[in-house]
Design brief:
CATH architecture: 3-Layer(aba) Sandwich
Oligomer: single chain
Radius of gyration: 14 Å
Number of helices: 5
CATH topology: Rossmann fold
CATH superfamily: Dehydroquinase, class II
Strand content: 15-25%
Bound molecules: 1,3,4-trihydroxy-5-OXO-cyclohexanecarboxylic acid
Strand order of the largest sheet: 2-1-3-4-5
Helix content: 25-40%
Number of strands: 5
């Protein structure tokens, strides 16, 4: 099983960025958590972060035929990007959406998620632990799907 974990704009600034909203754990800690979880679960891993919408679309397309599951935090593009939604639909790889903060209790412009419309589940408001939960869920989802 091979997963791609994608992070969108400003996630590389974790720890520095609005710590009251996103916590004090930095991007390196996020990567360590994701790497550790995948290693424990026997999942092969690719990691990608970009501040550019088209680069995120390219990476999703690049996953086609190679990647079994995607964990994605599209960050601000969550609320604007039909292109990321369409890319997820195009490759039709099961995807789980993660948000570090609880977007449901934030500004009204954060209440829509376009990529989320192509995801099998969303985790929000769990801090970076949401990535661990998303990986575990996706593994279970794919295992159950393959047993059917
Ligand atoms: C975020 C929430 C988004 O609204 C915001 O633009 C981000 C991070 C989160 O992880 O909580 O950059 O996706």
């Amino acid at each position: 099983m091979r997963f791609l974990v994608i992070n969108g704009p400003n996630i590389n600034m974790l720890g520095v960025r609005e710590p009251d909203v996103y916590g004090r754990q930095d991007y390196q800690m996020l990567l360590e958590l994701v790497r550790g979880t995948c290693a424990e679960e026997g999942i092969e891993l690719e990691l990608f972060q970009s501040n550019h919408e088209g680069a995120l679309v390219d990476e999703i397309q690049n996953a086609y035929g190679r990647i079994d599951g995607i964990v994605i935090n599209p960050a601000a593009y969550t609320h604007t990007s039909v292109a990321i939604l369409d890319a997820l639909k195009a490759v039709s790889i099961p995807a789980v959406e993660v948000h570090i903060s609880d977007v449901s209790s934030r500004e009204s412009f954060r209440q829509i998620s376009y990529p989320g419309m192509a995801c099998v589940k969303t985790y929000m408001g769990q801090g970076i632990d949401g990535y661990r939960q998303a990986i575990l869920y996706l593994k279970q989802y794919l295992t159950e799907r393959d047993e059917r």
